[in-house]
Amino acid sequence: MDNGIHNRLHSDKAQASLVNGVKEEPVSTQRTHSPDNKGADNGAAVVRDYSNPGSNLHTLQNTEMEELPDELQHITADSLPLSLLLSRLAQFSHAKLQELILNLASKPLPESFSNGNSGVNGAVKGSANAGGHVPEDTSPESLDKKTMVLNFIQDLHSRWVKALVITEWAKNADEVGKLIDLRTHLADKLELYNKTFWELVRVKQELAFAKVPSPDLKTALEVLTSGSVHWMPDFGYLLKPPLTTQEKLHWLNEIEVTLHMRLQLHEYERIPQPWRQYKVENGRVTFTVPGEFEVDLTISDEDFDSQFWFLDYRPIFTPAPAEVSEHARAFIEAQVNTVLQTEGLPGCYKYLHELTLTAKIGEFYRQAVELTRTGLWVQTLKVERLDRAMSIQYWAQSPLSRGTPSWILLGVHSGKAPEGLHDPGTPSHIMLQWFREGKEAKDISIPFDVDTISTEKVLTTVISRHVEYLLGSMYNALLGKPRFTQRQGTIALRIADQPDTSSALTMQLLGKHDATLGVGTWMGNFYFHEQTPTGRDWAQRFNSLRNPAHEGANLLEQIRWSYTARRLRMLPKPAIWVVLPQAPVPSDEVKSVVYSPSSSTREPFHAIWVRNTRWRPQWFAMMSLSLGGDGWWLVEVSAEGRGFSGPRITTFTQLPMTPSDPRFPENSWFPELTKHTTSIMAHIDDLRGLHQQRTRYGFGKSRDSRDLTTYVRSPDMLASQSAPDDISPSPWATQFIPLVYKGPAPILGHEFADLIADAGSLQKQPARQRVLVEAKVAVTNRARFVLLERKLDRDVFYDHELGQFTLRFRPDAGSGAVPLLRARMLALNRLVGIVDGLARAGKRVMPERVTLREIVFTYGDGTHGSLPPDQLSAPSQEKQQTWRLRLNLAKDQGVDVILEEGNPHLRVKDYLQAFANSPKLRTIPGWLFLTLPLFRALERLESSWDSVLAKEQGACYTFHKSMDWVTIRFALSGAKGRRMHLDIKPRDREGNLVWHVYRPMTDANATNENDEFNKVLKERVWSVDGQGFKGLMNGALASWDGGIENLIALIGETIQSLAGTPPPSLAAAQPHQLSQALSAAQQQQQQPAEHHQPVAPPGGGPQPARFASQQAYQQQQQQTPCLPQASMHPQGQPQVQQQQQQQRTGIAKNNTPVVVID
User: Fold this and answer.
1) Is residue 278 within 8 Å of 263, Cβ to Cβ?
2) DSSP structure string for 360-408
3) Residue 683 to residue 740: CA distance in whole angstroms
4) Whole-angstrom distance, CA of residue 856 vs CA of residue 1071
5) Helix, strand or coil for residue 754?
6) Parallel, antiparallel, or unpaired for β 804-809 and 771-778?
7) Contact of 1015 with 980, CB cutoff 8 Å
8) How far apart are CA 964 and CA 940, in angstroms?
9) pLDDT for res 333
10) What pLDDT does residue 793 have?
11) Are strands 883-888 and 854-859 parallel, antiparallel or unpaired?
12) What pLDDT is attached to residue 369?
């Protein structure tokens, strides 16, 4: 739009310039300098040459601004750029055009369009086809729209024409500006001329009063000499006689009576309320307004309608002048008499009341001005008088007043209601308005005494309220925070009636250290009572706050953060504790920890990280300081987690201690941290392990010591000891076992030496922190544990009175105690099983020492079962030796079985060793005394065959295929097949354990009735019943406690009877055949033995154990070194006899049982 206008204006280059739309010829002016113009203005004379107007105008246009006179000022005020005017006009035109378009669109269509008739369109089309003119649409709607468009165009046209004129005038902006400057200069000179003229008139009028008249010397001489003037007339007036005292009292009494009558009868309703109490005496009525003034009035006529007259006025507020000056009294008298004549007593009261209030305001102002000149208030107050009011700004030099000053306003309140109506019961009074930090404090009432005026007291009262506001706002903001509601810190506010050093806000920083914040009375600056460099720095920060009442609470909290961090670094602490310079995790991770107790509280916080060098690298301790509550935290940090790179917090827990807790002073922080963190780390590791193993558990705190406790089930701790073929024993422990975490474990002697060495070494890592964990395992039946000693191990104790085990562990703080508890429970379970076995064995087994490391008991020195002594054989009637067995449970490789030299069970020591390291360890005591008669019988049998072997007539061998399976091999000289073996196995017969001796089917001649061994055994053994045994025709059954010895002795005698006799098929036996038979038997030592399932002992006795595979057992025995065989025999036995004994028993040098199979 602008471009179009400019193109249209400047299309004709030859067009003359337009001024107000009229062509104008240029007029030039010439500026000449003439010596005759020296007395003219500083500028040069202008001579216009109207003969050549063009040259004159050209010369005027080239005149520069600096050539103008100095007194001409260039006017630039209220000037706007032309571009702004045109842009605003273009915006206005565009907005009006949019408004016009919307208004036209909102107008209704003509009826022809609304009825569906083509109307004008049809006519237009027809006319166009006919070549005629288009008819005009004259409908009211169209006319209305056209009118709107025309009005719009006319309005904009007038505006843009004005803009065009202004634009053309702008081409000569310099000339127009000079014209404006000249016009302004001439107007100023004319105004100065007028002022000068009227000033001269005023001076002339005042000079008339300054004239001194000529002195009348003639009259003055006459007066001075004679005292009179002859030309002054004498009227001859007579003076009234003076009143006597009685007359004066009479008239005073009359006046008083009249005053009483008039005030009681005529003026009573019009007496103002404050003047209801008055005093009449000495011919006057005295009206008193307490704290303001007293006024004396009287009357001069008995007429009740006559006016009162003023006598005296006395202000009675303090301080006030004792007497009013004559000038002031005359002024008051004139004003009061005038008011009494027109308005009566109400008007008099109002006038004097307002006068007194004004005087009081003046007194307040006088005292304020005095305060600004003397004392401590110098340069701290700004006083301003505002007619009948005054303002006093206090703390003028305080940083608090830089942006938002504080002041008080003392003025007269009219007493009118908010609606503007006057309330007679509420007269005007002095009011005090307090503007605190730029805003009026409307809800606060400040008491001040208007009877005894003291500006300083008013100021101190207001300042005290301001101090209360500043400190109280901080106090209320802090008091409502969780840190103080939960009593984690102390805060106190003291406000004095008069501001002094006792008004202060005291907040606990740490322990017994407090921060006491005060506000200066006169300067209004914050200061701390502790005059330290740090206190001064924080005071400067307080004074720089824009709104201390709202921001001061957070700054006080920051002071506490700074002090606590500095104090923590300065505290004496062990060398293993280190305060970290920065957090090991991002701030978002720290927020998730601090805000975890209450997500609704999001107070700013400060975190201080510490670490114990004896911890694992991922563990840290953090102290969080916040108005939401302080706390110590134990945090576990991982390198990466939850899909984010960088360190992340995986585990955290709040410690049961706070930095401000009086129970934990500063010097006990690190010991308490060590106590709680070690317990919690072990507790967390145990819970994590139990959760990963899907083991049920519980946790809480112990009732007596409030220590962390983990509850586990005893079956879960004993689950790994069950075997598929084991008979589950009755539970000996209660269901739940509490694991109590007692804090850091005491440092032992060797650990202390290592710790000292670690502290002196820069490369060696310090020893890990250990925690003391105590487990209480209660037993279900105390009678089962009477054989136990009180101290079972260094850290295992049994209390017979309470019936419970006390287990103590010292694991690493980050390792947990559950694995140690499980191992110790398994050891206890093994011990309980052995103790049960010892108890079931009765008097045949006597325990000597029962601990977790070692079990020692003796067996064998007892009775022989149910057989009477007269039925025992000679060997059984001999007093049997008692044998001692020691089980070493402290070895890492397993249980070690140690037997005495000469013990019959030495032949099966390897089996005993394997048996002791199986879940059937508890059956060893029962098995030993049950098998002792059998093993004694086997030794006697072997001893009885020594003479036969020496003669090379035969041999007898015993082989132990398992703990309860013995094979006896007999070989006689003669034919190759003159051999036989017998098996001895336990059997259950009517609930009693018996030994079954028979010839197994693996023997080729087991069913051959013509076999010489079958014949002799059937005849002399299998078919007879002896002492403690019974024949079965193909075998025999013998009792375990004596019958087996008689039976084996009878079998040995029976087979020995065949030695030295020829076999049935040979006449005689050759000696070398016996040697061949012995060699053949020894070659079969490595052949596997048959598997056999033993029979459980009757009556719930101990069940003998066995290996799952004889071949596996033989392989183990080949790799396991054993005791030398010499320890199995008495000292002094010849070496030849020892070798023969080894051959008979089938035991090689490695103590491996040998199995000989035909």
Assistant:
1) yes
2) HHHHHHHHHHHHHHSGGGTTT-EEEEETTEEEEEE-TTSGGGTTS-EEE
3) 9
4) 49
5) helix
6) antiparallel
7) no
8) 19
9) 94
10) 84
11) antiparallel
12) 93
Block means of pLDDT (10 residues each) for the chain, 1158 residues, are 38 37 38 38 37 42 51 74 90 93 88 55 46 70 90 94 90 83 90 95 88 84 86 80 90 92 89 90 93 93 90 92 89 94 92 93 93 88 90 87 86 78 74 90 86 91 90 90 85 81 84 86 86 80 87 90 87 81 88 82 87 88 88 86 73 83 70 84 86 84 78 81 48 87 74 53 61 89 85 87 89 82 85 83 84 86 44 46 86 84 89 85 84 89 88 88 89 78 89 89 84 87 87 88 87 85 55 45 40 36 34 36 30 38 36 28
Task: Tally helices (H) and strands (E) across the chain.
Answer: 29, 40
Residue 593 structure tokens: 């920890």
Q: What Å distances lie between residue 443 and 420, 435, 439, 463, 1103, CA to CA? A: 22, 12, 12, 16, 96
CA angle 599, 603, 609 (to 5 degrees): 95
Residue 500, pLDDT score: 66
Q: Which two tokens stand for residue 1076?
A: 């061949």
What is the per-residue pLDDT for 1114?
Answer: 37
SS3 content of the chain, % helix, strand, coil (to 5): 40, 20, 35
Task: Report d(CA 1028, CA 1032) in Å as an integer.
Answer: 14
> What's the rounded Cα separation, in Å, for the pair 1048 and 1043?
9
DSSP, collapsed to helix, strand or coil, labels residue 280 as strand
d(CA 972, CA 956): 9
- Is the backbone peptide bond immediately before 319 cis, with ω within 30 degrees of 0? yes
What letter would DSSP give residue 843? Answer: G
What does the alpha-carbon distance between residue 971 and residue 958 come to, in Å, rounded to a whole number?
12
Residue with tokens 């010991």: 671
Helix intervals (H) in 303-343: 326-342
**Contacts (Cβ under 8 Å, ≥6 apart) of 885:** 856, 857, 858, 859, 897, 898, 899, 900, 903, 905, 924, 928
Give phi and psi for 920, each to the nearest 5: -95, 25
**Helix extents (H) in 502-639:** 533-543, 548-570, 587-594
Tell me, what's the pLDDT at 490? 87
Q: Name the nearest CA neighbour of 769 among 882, 657, 682, 874.
A: 682
Model pLDDT, residue 362: 93
Amino acid occupying residue 433: Q
pLDDT for the residue numbered 309: 94
Output the six-digit token pair for 965. 């399976």
**The whole model's pTM is what?**
0.57
**What is the 8-class DSSP label of residue 1021?**
I
| Amino acid making up residue 800 | H
162 vs 938: CA distance, rounded Å: 145
